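Support request from a user on the community tier.

User writes: "When I paste my structure tokens into the form, the page sometimes reloads and wipes my input. The last time it worked, I copied everything first. Here is what I submitted, just in case something in the input itself triggers the reload:"
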């Protein structure tokens, strides 16, 4: 099981470095939201008609989403998952994906849950429904499959790495 206290601390440190090196204010710099309640998670599951991936759910109980987790891409919390405008827009964007992208990524708009999206671009994070008891992957789509993570924890660690890469890019 992922120790979210450790991972959230690592992400916060990466985001602080990014903030310090973003001298031209290219990106939004926001903190994670306060934890979701178990009741909010249950409301989300009723709303979306499926059980949340246990790894993602355990994250939400520590941080109910993280705005600007990477550049301008927000990691959704229960507020978005319960039917916000940005969640609806992410669902609509999924509908515009080319059939080849859906086939290559082995997803359908009906089976994939948007768990994050860009405010200004076409990047989104999708979580396909996994077989019962199996971890759900997270797929980063930006018109094509950018990256696939085996689990939500792997995805979150990948976002830490991407933020640190952004720090290095800004330093050069």
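"...and here is what came back when it finally went through:"
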């Amino acid at each position: 099981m992922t120790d979210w206290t450790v991972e959230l601390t690592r992400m916060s440190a990466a985001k602080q470095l990014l903030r310090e090196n973003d001298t031209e204010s290219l990106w939004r710099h926001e903190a994670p939201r306060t934890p979701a309640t178990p009741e909010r998670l249950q409301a989300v599951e009723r709303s979306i008609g499926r059980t949340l991936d246990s790894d993602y759910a355990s994250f939400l109980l520590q941080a109910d989403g993280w705005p600007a987790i990477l550049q301008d891409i927000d990691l959704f919390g229960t507020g978005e998952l319960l039917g916000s405008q940005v969640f609806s827009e992410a669902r609509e964007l999924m509908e515009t994906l080319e059939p080849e992208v859906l086939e290559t990524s082995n997803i359908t708009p009906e089976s994939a849950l948007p768990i994050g999206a860009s405010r200004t671009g076409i990047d989104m994070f999708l979580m396909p429904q996994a077989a019962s008891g199996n971890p759900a992957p997270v797929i980063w789509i930006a018109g094509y499959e950018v990256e696939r993570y085996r689990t939500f924890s792997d995805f979150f660690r990948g976002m830490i790495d991407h933020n640190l890469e952004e720090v290095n890019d800004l330093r050069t």
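Agent notes: The reload is a front-end session timeout and is unrelated to the input. The chain has one domain: 4-171. The two ends are 37 Å apart (CA to CA). Escalated to web team.
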